[in-house]
Structures are given as C-alpha cells and as structure tokens.
Amino acid sequence: MFPDYHLHSVFSADCETDVEKIIEKAKSIGMKSLCFTDHNDLDFPEIPDMVIFDLEIDKYMETLSELKRKHPDFDIRIGVEQGVMPSTIERLNNYSSEHPGLDFIICSTHVVLGTDPYYKTVFENYGEEKVYRTYFEDILNTVQKFHDYSVYGHIDYILRYGPTKAENFTMQKYGNLFEEIFKNIIEKGKGIEINTGSLYRELDFPHPHIDLLRLYKSLGGEIITIGSDSHDLDHIGYAFDTARELLLAEGFRYYTEFKKLKPEFKSLT
Q1: Coil, strand or helix: which one is 131?
Q2: How far apart are the first and last CA of the chain?
C-alpha cells in the first residue's frame, strides 16, 4: 500500500478526524508511512458556515512531531496543503523557511472569481467555460509566481463542481494553457499528484484527467505523488490500486515521496 500523500485531519477546518485514528487506520490497511497535508487557505472567502482555513501551524507541527516519537515504527511525514490565491502568493512564498520541519507542500487552487466553486453560484453567475478558463489561468499565474511547493494538487479540481463535470473539458479548449502550466512545473523541479478523491466525488477518473496526465508525461514530467484527499477514515488510501494501474499504463515507473522537501522516487512495481 502506497503512503497517502494527501489527507486531512482535525487540523483542517472542514475535517473532524483525529490524527491518531488516521495513523491506526493507515497501519490497518498496510501502510508503513503517510503524509498529513492539512489545509492552509489564507484569505479564503466568507462562506455560509464561516469556515476559516488558516492552519494553526505551530500546534500542528508540535502534535505531529510528538506522534512521530510515539509511533517509531510508522513513518509520519509532515506536509501542508496551501490554498494559493493571487493575494497570498507573496505571503506564502517563504512558508517552508519560516516553518522548518515540513516534508512536503501541496499547492492547490480552491477559489475562482472570488468564490468557492463547491457552492455552484460562480457557475450560475459566469457560466462553466469562463469559470474553467479563469481557474486554469489562475493556476498558470500561480506556477509562474509561486515557488514554495512540492507538487500541484488536484490540478483540474474545478471539474468536480462544474455543471457538466468533464463533459466539455477538451484539450482543444485548454491544452495550450496546460502545456504552459506543465512546462513551468517541470522546469522548476516540481510535480503533480494523482488524487483519487474525485472517484468518490462524482467523477469517473482520478485527478488529473487522463489527457492531462498524458500531456504531463509527454513533456517530461516524472514527479508524481498519490493521495486520497481523505477527510475521514473510510477514504484513506482510496482506489490506490487504480492509481497505480493508471500510472503504469501511461508509462510511469516511479511514484514520489518527500522528506525534508526533497523528492524520493519509489518503484511502482
């Protein structure tokens, strides 16, 4: 069982799962390691239930460091999922040096046109194609200006929430944008993730879409982590066999783990 490199605990504002229970569940399904990646979304727009996604980083790292000592037989890595927006790029660009001890940083885009797409109103206001294009343009802007990360998370996340999901997502429409995005990611020594969370959220493919995964590989992309995006115990390691088969089918031979922000390549076979 591959280590889960995208999961959330009680330290994420949208999750109530106890960190120690996550470790015990991971052990029970055969994992020997995992990486916590709780949310840090500064300037997140106000939403109906007023969730605040600012991570209590000092308490977080203190708790996980203590658990590392408590579970010497289990390799706990400490990560964070940065929800990056134009207004927060500058503040987050030195996060790892300001908080030494991190192993891994996911850069994600969770907001488009000032709104969380989970609530659908942005599609009602602007239409699906404009929202998709703006979202992908925001990613391009982020990879051009933001450098303090390891992989880009669920890079086509917006497809979870669009009215037609991936039905109107084509490389003819968006391929040029993604070619620029991936070239920038690869040139900077960063990577992407296979995120299986889409498979229990109404999509029939893991993030990224198969066409995007093929483009990333064709451009020389090699760094790729595997994560479930779990916010509960039931989805830890979800469909990792599917992720492995997909990576092998597309010519990948290695997946990636991170320690002290450095990639470690591990065989998929």
Answers
A1: helix
A2: 11
d(CA 269, CA 258) in angstroms, rounded, equals 19
Which helix (DSSP H) or strand (DSSP E) does residue 121 occupy? helix 121-126
Amino acid making up residue 157:
Y
| 1: exposed, middle or buried (Cβ count in 10 Å: 0-12, 13-18, 19+) | middle
Lowest mean pLDDT among 49-53, 86-90, 178-182, 212-216: 49-53
Q: Are 89 and 146 in contact (CB under 8 A)?
A: yes
**82 close to 149: Cβ distance less than 8 angstroms:** yes
Average pLDDT of the residues in 197-213: 96
**For residues 144 and 183, is the Cβ–Cβ distance under 8 A?**
no
- Are 22 and 34 in contact by the 8 Å Cβ rule? The answer is yes
Measured CA distances, 74 to 3, 24, 77, 261, 262 (Å) = 11, 10, 10, 19, 19
What does the alpha-carbon distance between residue 66 and residue 118 come to, in Å, rounded to a whole number? 34
> What's the confidence (pLDDT) of residue 49?
61
Alpha carbon of residue 3 to chain centroid = 14
pTM of this structure: 0.97
- Distance CA(89)–CA(93), nearest Å, equals 6
